[in-house]
Specification:
This is DNA helicase Pif1-like 2B domain-containing protein. With about 150 residues, this protein is mainly α. The chain is about 30% helix and about 5% strand. The mean pLDDT is about 80.
Length: about 150
């Protein structure tokens, strides 16, 4: 793994803490947010969402512990972006001949899951909003997820 100079301090702190050398109390670094009330304001206060360009987001990332928290932050930031929101819903079903599986894994239950690498059941987007392509399913067609 390569680390930029700005990341080395954080990586050193993380390694030190992970090896149990930090003592009883953990002192968060100044750039860590233990609780995010308004992520758009805290993390992107220097950006005007009405006129933002993709270049202004270059080099920025929000890291979260869970996908649920990531989805919450994404939806909050999306609210700040101009344009009409479009919601795409997944279609979930159980592929099994066992009737017990059909009862145990209802569509509502499957819709509630947020596994790593899979989009949420309700994907909210707006025109011009940046997205990340997690898997390129058809490289011969360019960047494609069909």
């Amino acid at each position: 793994m390569r680390a930029f100079d700005s990341e080395k301090k954080f990586l050193s702190w993380l390694l030190h803490d992970g090896e149990g050398e930090s003592g009883e109390k953990i002192q968060l670094l100044q750039f860590c947010y233990p609780e995010i009330q308004d992520p758009a304001q805290q993390l992107f206060s220097d950006i005007d969402f009405k006129t933002v360009t993709p270049e202004e987001f270059k080099g920025r990332a929000i890291l979260t512990v869970t996908n649920d928290l990531s989805i919450q932050i994404n939806n909050r930031v999306l609210e700040c972006m101009p344009g009409n929101e479009v919601i795409y819903e997944s279609m979930d079903n159980t592929v099994s001949n066992d009737p017990q599986d059909q009862l145990a894994y209802t569509e509502e239950f499957l819709n509630s899951l947020t596994p790593t690498g899979i989009l949420p059941h309700k994907l909210k987007l707006k025109p011009g909003v940046l997205i990340m392509l997690l898997r390129n399913l058809a490289p011969s067609k360019g960047l494609c997820n069909e």
